[in-house]
Amino acid sequence: NQSPERQEDDAAAEDKGDVPEDTAQSILVMLSEFLDSEVSDLRTETAEGLAKLMYTGRISSAKMLSRLVLLWYNPITEDDTHLRHCLGVFFQLYARESRAHQEVVEESFLPTIRTLLEAPATSPLAEVDVNNVVELLVELTRPSALIKPSTNIEETSVHDFLAVRMCGEMLKDPTAPEVRLYAKALSNLEFSRDDAVKEDLQSLLQQLVQVVKDRICLRALEKMLQQLTDSKEQTELLSASPPQPLDVNADEAAADDLSKSVKRAKRGQRKASTAKGGRKPSRKAESSEESDGENVPETVSVVRPPRRAKTAALEKTKLDLNPLINQEANVS
């Protein structure tokens, strides 16, 4: 049991600790109101200060990040080059710094898009291109964009959770115009190799395919579902059949068998050519070949006559000298 004096000191310390927290909260509320100020300098200085606080980790707020994104795209800040440049650099550095920062961006995705889609026609935000905002947030949350990407390929990525959010939003109203927007964004996400995540996404996509009527959205969802199915089957195939070690002796034996079969094939070709070339070609064919020897194309293969045919031809071309010898003997 603590003494009454000790309890009073603890209570006073708690009260003192609550004061800075409440003060900080009230300051943030005041700064967020300055973002809507019509004074350009006040708006710019406030946005730059909040960006620095978020980048250094002093503030972690998806709502505040959404306010900065909307301010950056708001047409009223089009002429404020310093503000546009400051926020443009901040978004890139902030998202690439760590996965925790990308999770803040992912958490701000749907609130930002809803604000733009629900903006009244009289609001400057109604002129903002929502597709451009979606592309920016998708790129900021891309796992490969991190300065130090994770080496664990099985780890779930921020895009996995973003895809689940998009699918859930589409299931709320499959006929809404933004369904086409989310379907297009889904095809640009980088998914991890986590099997549980793939199964959840496949289940959500199968539900969407049954309720979505827009042809363009349906085609994109079916293509994505097929890609997830193929990647899952390929992963299962690779895990079921690990690569076999290379057998050098087996490769050498196969090479020897191949060389032997080639030699046998060449011997067979020689025997076939000998059998076909045994017949003596006619003189007419020889004369035509001699006269048109220059016009014969190189691709025509001439069958060489066998050695026996050559010997027989030489024997016939020899002169028969026996009658001349007998004639000279009779004269003498």
TrEMBL record:
Record's subcellular location: Chromosome
Keywords (A to Z) from UniProt: Cell cycle, Cell division, Chromosome, DNA condensation, Mitosis
Region feature (Disordered): 259-332
Protein's UniProt keywords contain Cell cycle: yes
Top-level taxon of the source organism: Eukaryota
InterPro entries attached to this UniProt entry: ARM-like, ARM-type_fold, CND3, Cnd3_C
Residue ranges of every copy of the Nuclear condensin complex subunit 3 C-terminal domain listed in the record: 16-191
Family membership noted in the UniProt record: Belongs to the CND3 (condensin subunit 3) family.
An annotated GO cellular component: cytoplasm
Protein's recorded name: Non-SMC condensin I complex, subunit G
Pfam families attached to this UniProt entry: Cnd3
SUPFAM superfamilies membership: ARM repeat
Basic residues bias (residue ranges): 261-270
Annotated source species: Nothobranchius kuhntae
Biological process per Gene Ontology, one example term: mitotic chromosome condensation
